[in-house]
Amino acid sequence: MENKKLKLLFSGKKGILLQRLPDSIESLHKIIESYYTVDSTKVQITFKDKEKDECEVLDNITYIAACGEFESKVVFSISVFNSVPISRLTIAKVPEGRKTLKFFKKKTRKMAIFDIETETTQWVTFPVGISFKEYAAWVELPSGEILYCGGGHPTSSKEAYLLNPYTQTYKSLPGMIHPRHSHGIAYNNGCVYIVGGMRNMLFFGSMMKECEKFVIETSTWQALDDLETPRGDSAAVVVGEKVFAMGKGSQYLTGLDTQNSKIDLKEDEGGCMATIEDLIYVIQGQKIKVCSITDLRVVEEITLPRKESWWSHCPPVCHEDSIYFVWWEEPGWICKFNRRTKEFKKLTSLFV
Questions:
Q1: Residue 156 to residues 106, 159, 325, Cα–Cα distance (Å)
Q2: How crowded is the C-beta side of 322, counted as CA atoms within 13 Å?
Q3: Is the pTM here over 0.70, yes or no?
Q4: Chain mean position to CA 18
Q5: What is the pLDDT of residues 218-265, one digit of tens each?
Q6: Helix (H) or strand (E) segment spanning residue 34
Q7: Which of 45, 144, 248, 301 could form a disulfide with 57 if both were Cys (CB 3.0 to 4.6 A apart)?
Q8: Beta-carbon count within 10 A of 48 CB
Q9: DSSP character for 153?
Q10: Residue 315, SS3?
Q11: What top-level branch of life does the organism fall under (predicted)?
C-alpha cells in the first residue's frame, strides 16, 4: 500500500490519525476494533471521492479504489450500522398501484422513488453489501420488485440483483452472460430482455450487439440473436410479443427477432422509448419520433430542446397524457413529455 496517512472519523467520537495505511480492509477492521471497541462487521465505512460523491468501502477491491482517491491522506468516516430494517412507513406513503420512477444513486445504497401522480420524491437506503453502479439499467416487474443489472465505470459489470423497494432488501442473481452498461432493458411475459450497451469505459469502450434475456421462473440467462449493428445508450420496448431495439450505432428501430421490422429514425443517437397501443415514442437526438408499428414508419416528429442522447436507466412510464423518464445526462433529472400539448420539460433533479 502507498505511503499515505489514514484519518478515521468515528461518528460521535474524536478522530484518530495514523502514519500509514493498513494493507487490506481486514487490517483496517482490526484497527477500528482496537481504537473504538466495536464489532467491525457492524460498522459502515464511507468517504468522499474526487467528485464529492459519498461512497462506501465494502471489500478489498473498493478499499484499494478508495485509497487511490486521496493524494497523501486517506479520510474515512466510520459509523455503526443500524441492523434494524428501515421503516416501511418511508414507502407506505406511496400506495400500491401508483405509478412511480425509481432511481439508484451511483456509488451509494440510496434509491429515490418519484411518485408520478403527485410529482414528489422519497429516498430509501438498502442494507450494507450492495453499491449501485454508474450506467446500470433496471426494470420494474409485475411483483413490484426491480431487476437491476450491469453498469460500472471504468469496467462494466455482469452483476444482477432482485431489489424490493418496499422492504429495502435485495437478492443476488446469476450474472449476465456479457458485462455491459448503458444498455436497453424491457420486461415481457416472465422475461427481462437486455439489448446492446457498452463494454468498459464510457467513450473509450466498444458498443455491443449481443442480446440476452433473464427467465424469471428458472433464474437463468439465455443468449438471444445479436442486433444487426452494435448499439450503445440503447433502449428496448415490447409491442404485443415483439421486442424492438434502438440506440447509438444505428439510425434504425428494429425488431429483435427479425430485421424485416425496421423503421428509419433518420438519427443515429441513443435514447429511450415508451409504447402506447401500437405506437412507439422514441425520445432520441433532436426529436421525439412517434412510430407506427402497423405501418413501420415515423408518423409524427416533435423537436426537443437540444440534441442529446436521451438514454434512460429504466423504461419510461406513461401516465394520462404524459411520458415520464429519468435522464442520465444530468444524473437524476426527471423529464416529462405531454403528448397532447407537445411540451417537453425537466421537472426536478434527484441528484442529492
A1: 14, 9, 23
A2: 16
A3: yes
A4: 37
A5: 999 999 999 999 999 999 999 988 999 999 999 999 998 765 789 999
A6: helix 25-36
A7: 45
A8: 13
A9: S
A10: coil
A11: Eukaryota
